[in-house]
């Protein structure tokens, strides 16, 4: 569903936010993309969703080449950004219908599809509310509705539960699992909540300083001992919630903990990290 | 859906949506036209002692154009901050439509404000010819497209906090240099020369000619040409900025 090769992004001024990411996501997986603030998670996701143009490497997303067929990518994916995308003053149902029609649906088809998605997410009663009148949890579920209204095969979620209380977070996790189990949706989500990654994801990629430093199932990464928190600290030398040492966008050297982790992951993932390093 | 049909459809969808939003914000439309109406009511009778309503009202039209369409990019600042813009950019909608739909809605708002101003102007004594008024409104709509496109482009590249104060300050000298309140032919040489460097003088002088029924003059041709070029350039700049950094 997603395959990237040495995907990179260097911003004007020479800041290397993503330095050669290689990853593969299979159909029907929920994949967590884990890393501290400024590690390159959002930049990678914005490249994969066509919001940022890569400066190096290549990628295929939902069967479409990211560089030569961005429109094909957009038709096939749903995207929920960190800030969501709900206009505070407009009825959310109306915004959703517009959103559906921008994917080519006729008005009646869009209305039906919006009703179906809102029903699935338990939001039907709220469709006439303006975005500004929704609670945090309701907004996040509506964000999910925007990502799903055109029936994509792949959904990108950028920090989907940040700022939510534990109960709203658990509700959203259930919805995401339902979608995977019910319609076979592939989900690629960034998070800096280790609990979320552990509970929700089939497989995890850990990114730090713009390169993938580990890959595996939560169980593989934990290796039967410790918690993901311990693993993350040993890989990156810092906690998941730490700010990056040089500011918001990473640009430093390869973190020290990778070698220790290489001993634990037996599937060869760390070779990808090595290749990524050569891209710099 | 092929290219042009798709662009027209997407533009229509975004336009209709933005018009609905504007109509909900009735206070925005009312207050947008209130300032020139205050000039009309409180300054017009004074101006009428030395000039004509056919001179003043075109000036007020250019003023409302600069303030209304020129500041219409403010909406995109909120949409960018709320994530609405990114959400729309990830749809397969044509990027030019995402801009044009907004811009045309901004231009329609300006058109409604212009019609209101002219209608109230008639009550005060404006006696412009009907073809002249219709042509002037067409010119205003075209100007609105250009200004709204430029405003959106500036809003996307400027610090969001700086947009409103910078733009509202920039608009004031442009209004004054256009000759909105007094014809620039009365100005000293340096001010007259400076005024000729701004496009809005040519637009304004063309509208004044149209209002008094002179349609085929060099002033009108110059005004139409300047407005057309300004709008095309601004839409191109706006589209370029809108597409920036996208795959």
What does this structure look like?
- The complex is a heterodimer of chains A (280) and B (247).
- By secondary structure, chain A is an alpha/beta fold.
- Chain A has eleven helices and ten strands.
- Chain A has helices at residues 41-48, 70-76, 92-101, 107-120, 136-148, 166-183, 194-200, 218-222, 228-236, 258-262, 269-278; strands spanning 2-11, 15-25, 30-34, 56-61, 64-65, 77-80, 154-158, 186-191, 203-208, 211-216.
- In chain A, the strands form two sheets. In chain A, strands 6-7-8-3-9-10 form a six-stranded mixed beta sheet, sandwiched between helices.
- In chain A, β4 and β5 (64-65) form a beta hairpin.
- The model of chain A is unreliable at 243-280 (pLDDT under 50).
- With 247 residues, chain B is an all-alpha fold.
- Chain B has one domain (2-245).
- Chain B is 81% helix and 0% strand.
- Chain B contains eleven helices and no strands.
- The relative contact order of chain B is 0.15.
Give a brief description:
Chain A is an alpha/beta fold and 280 residues long. In chain A, 38% of the residues lie in helices and 22% in strands. The relative contact order of chain B is 0.15.
């Amino acid at each position: 569903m997603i395959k990237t090769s040495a995907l990179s992004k260097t911003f004007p001024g020479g800041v290397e936010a993503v330095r050669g990411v290689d990853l593969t996501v299979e159909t029907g997986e929920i994949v967590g993309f884990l890393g501290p603030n400024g590690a390159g998670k959002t930049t990678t996701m914005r490249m994969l969703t066509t919001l940022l143009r890569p400066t190096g490497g290549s990628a295929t997303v939902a069967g479409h080449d990211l560089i030569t067929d961005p429109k094909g990518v957009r038709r096939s994916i749903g995207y929920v950004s960190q800030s969501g995308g709900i206009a505070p003053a407009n009825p959310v149902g109306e915004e959703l219908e517009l959103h559906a029609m921008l994917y080519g649906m006729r008005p009646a088809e869009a209305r039906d599809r919006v009703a179906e998605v809102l029903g699935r997410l338990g939001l039907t009663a709220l469709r006439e509310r303006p975005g500004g009148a929704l609670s945090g949890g309701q907004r996040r579920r509506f964000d999910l509705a925007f990502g799903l209204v055109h029936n994509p095969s792949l959904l990108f979620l950028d920090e989907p539960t940040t700022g939510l209380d534990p109960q709203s977070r658990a509700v959203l996790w259930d919805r995401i699992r339902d979608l995977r189990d019910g319609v076979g949706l592939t989900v690629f989500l960034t998070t800096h909540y280790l609990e979320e990654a552990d509970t929700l994801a089939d497989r995890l990629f850990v990114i730090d300083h713009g390169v993938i430093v580990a890959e595996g199932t939560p169980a593989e990464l934990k290796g039967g001992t410790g918690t993901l928190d311990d693993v993350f600290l040993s890989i990156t030398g810092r906690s998941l919630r730490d700010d990056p040492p040089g500011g918001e966008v990473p640009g430093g050297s390869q973190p020290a903990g990778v070698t220790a982790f290489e001993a634990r992951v037996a599937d060869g993932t760390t070779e990808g990290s090595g290749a990524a390093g050569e891209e710099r | 859906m092929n290219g042009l049909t798709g662009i027209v459809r997407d533009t229509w969808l975004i336009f209709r949506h933005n018009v609905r939003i504007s109509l909900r914000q009735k206070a925005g439309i009312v207050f947008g036209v209130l300032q020139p109406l205050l000039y009309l009511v409180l300054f017009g009778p004074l101006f009428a002692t030395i000039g004509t309503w056919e001179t003043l009202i075109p000036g007020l039209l250019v003023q409302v154009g600069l303030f209304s369409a020129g500041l219409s990019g403010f909406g995109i600042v909120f949409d960018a901050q709320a994530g609405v813009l990114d959400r729309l950019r990830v749809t397969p909608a044509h990027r030019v439509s995402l801009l044009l739909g907004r811009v045309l809605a901004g231009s329609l708002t300006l058109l409604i404000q212009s019609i209101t101003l002219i209608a109230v102007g008639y009550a005060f004594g404006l006696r412009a010819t009907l073809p002249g008024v219709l042509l002037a409104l067409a010119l205003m709509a075209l100007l609105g497209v250009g200004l709204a496109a430029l405003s959106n482009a500036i809003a996307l590249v400027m610090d969001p906090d700086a947009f409103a104060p910078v733009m509202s300050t920039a608009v004031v000298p442009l209004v004054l240099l256009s000759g909105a309140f007094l014809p620039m032919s009365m100005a000293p040489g340096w001010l007259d020369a400076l005024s000729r460097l701004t496009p809005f003088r040519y637009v304004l002088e063309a509208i004044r000619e149209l209002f008094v029924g002179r349609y085929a003059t060099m002033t009108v041709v110059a005004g139409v040409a300047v407005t057309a070029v300004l709008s095309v350039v601004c839409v191109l700049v706006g589209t370029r900025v809108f597409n920036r950094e996208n795959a």
